[in-house]
């Protein structure tokens, strides 16, 4: 299980550092009125993928089950996810995905030729929230007062620069290569004085992005049931002019 967590977190961290300069083209868009799709949302979709000449290469329309994917998990090609994220339940959208955000110069097996742009039409059937929660600064303060374990997973350099939140535990979660520090698991359990996965756990990072990656892994892959992230991270905390103190 630890190996799974290391692999997932390393992939997520590397993905968060990538900058995509190529974007999809939205051909048609009929917005829905339901829940918005955010990072790590679970999404049910009906879709049809075709070439620019109209030939369909894949579809699940009319089948028994919709496609179910979790956002930000690299479960679909980048361009498809780019077209889905930010939409809402009920949305119907048609997009053109450039080859760079599809299967690139290698193509997709015997079906998708190299360097091929693709057309996707999809409908968002349902949206479920991530397994972890995003909490405000005031909610975090209350949770710490009620003995939640709040881990500031940034680096020592970042702690020195900004300070840390009173009652939180500075504990760097990733090494300089982006690999998860396995000993953090033991640290969490020691702080909670329990081996239970029901511990109320909050991750704090610079802007909430890295914390959300870790929170998703703990809740989805390791079975922790009460996981949260500080929304906007330390950056948002500072913008609210809330106090930070030295970590030593």
From TrEMBL:
Keywords: Isomerase, Rotamase, Signal. It catalyses: [protein]-peptidylproline (omega=180) = [protein]-peptidylproline (omega=0). It comes from the Bacteria. SUPFAM superfamilies: FKBP-like, Rhodanese/Cell cycle control phosphatase. Residues 1-21 form the signal peptide. SMART domains: RHOD (SM00450). Residues 144-246 form the Rhodanese domain. Coiled coil: none annotated. Residues 40-128 form the PPIase FKBP-type domain. InterPro entries: FKBP2/11, PPIase_dom_sf, PPIase_FKBP_dom, Rhodanese-like_dom, Rhodanese-like_dom_sf. Its EC number is 5.2.1.8. One of its GO terms (molecular function) is peptidyl-prolyl cis-trans isomerase activity. Belongs to the FKBP-type PPIase family. This is Peptidyl-prolyl cis-trans isomerase. It comes from Candidatus Pelagibacter giovannonii.
């Amino acid at each position: 299980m630890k190996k799974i967590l290391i692999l997932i977190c390393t992939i997520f961290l590397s993905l968060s550092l990538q900058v995509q300069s190529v974007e999809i083209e939205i051909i048609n868009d009929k917005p829905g009125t339901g829940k918005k799709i955010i990072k790590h949302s679970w999404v049910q979709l009906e879709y049809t993928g075709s070439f620019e000449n109209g030939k369909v290469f894949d579809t699940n329309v009319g089948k028994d089950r919709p496609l179910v994917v979790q956002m930000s998990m690299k479960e679909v090609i980048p361009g498809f996810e780019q077209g889905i994220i930010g939409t809402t339940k009920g949305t119907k959208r048609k997009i053109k995905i450039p080859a760079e955000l599809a299967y690139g110069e290698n193509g997709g097996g015997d079906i998708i030729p190299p360097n091929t742009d693709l057309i996707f039409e999809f409908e968002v059937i349902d949206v479920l929230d991530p397994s972890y929660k995003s909490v405000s600064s005031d909610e975090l303060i209350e949770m710490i007062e009620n003995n939640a374990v709040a881990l500031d997973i940034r680096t020592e350099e970042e702690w020195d620069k900004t300070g840390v939140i009173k009652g939180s535990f500075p504990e760097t979660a990733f090494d300089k290569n982006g690999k998860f520090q396995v000993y953090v698991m033991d640290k969490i359990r020691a702080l909670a004085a329990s081996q239970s996965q029901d511990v109320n756990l909050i991750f704090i990072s610079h802007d909430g992005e890295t914390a959300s990656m870790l929170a998703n892994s703990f809740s989805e892959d390791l079975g922790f049931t009460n996981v949260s992230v500080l929304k906007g991270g330390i950056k948002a905390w500072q913008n609210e002019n809330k106090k930070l103190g030295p970590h030593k």
